[in-house]
Amino acid sequence: MMTQLTFGYLYDFRNPLQWRRPWAELYAEIIDFAAYTETLGFDGAWVPEHHGADDGYMPTPMIALAALAARTKTIKLGSAIALAPLYHPVRFAEECAVLDHLSNGRLEMAIAIGYRRREAEAYGVDFTKRGGRTDEFLEIVTRLWKGETVTFAGRHFDLKDASIVQAPTRGRIPLYVGGFNEKAIARTAKYGDGYFGNLDIVDLYLEKLRAAGKDASCARIRIQGLFTVVARDPARAMDELAPYFLHVNNTYGEWLNEDKAATGIGDGGLLKPMSLDAFKASGILSILTPDQAIAMLGSMLAKAPVEHFMMMLPPGLPPARFRPYAEVFANDVMPAFR
Predict the structure, then answer these.
(1) Contacts of 305 (CB under 8 A, 6+ apart)
(2) How many domains are contained in the chain?
């Protein structure tokens, strides 16, 4: 028996043009799928955020999370991630507090500053000041969740006597902060309850926790494995799933290369648009047998105290066709980490 590890899926609610379907039908099927994963024993349903995407990438995670809260009972719910600079902190804190009550205390949020200049500009936010704006946002949000009445005079927000009547019953909604460079991870260590992101950043996060005077042995870490799938026949799964994951690769590749310096990721770590054949041969999409997945996850746990591993429902693929993959993971992989 290995160290306990929980698992969930990310739902971006995209509707790519080449597979476009009625929006209401697509949304209902994704929510059905998330509710089904709860019955299989998955522990998380997470919603990300982007704006102005041609494929309809979810721009309003709070609304999607409210729908998920109404259809589930035990699974953890949250953003992964919400773009903090695009929110007013009081509104964000209020909406999260209400969502936490609607879900009976199951909300766990993750935020980051974002890396697309055009998203900030569409909201009238200065892209170059999103770090400082997020620092003030985090201070205000966490104080409101504690039940404080907040008066705040900063460079980005000026508040008088802000408060929340529906303060979270836990005193604070768990808040994970993502990022890839030193400034971002220092922010995570200062304000966050944990880190959400990539395994290769974990050592830096633990270092920043210690620098902030916090106990690194209590670190809470969530890792995204969006291009990880488990199947009993990986070759067949590659043929079926690669076109949908290629869409994920190519859209992220385009976005990440718009403002490379803003990502905090070196050129070697950025996704790049490519053909289907090149994608299949690239190794980016990791389709593992159950035994291979158990070994991979065990190796990950040996390197870092990861508490949750997040995969994704690929956009464009009808959710019902992905159910067998979720079932294989639940039946053949998850028991090794319970």
Answers:
(1) 217, 219, 221
(2) 1
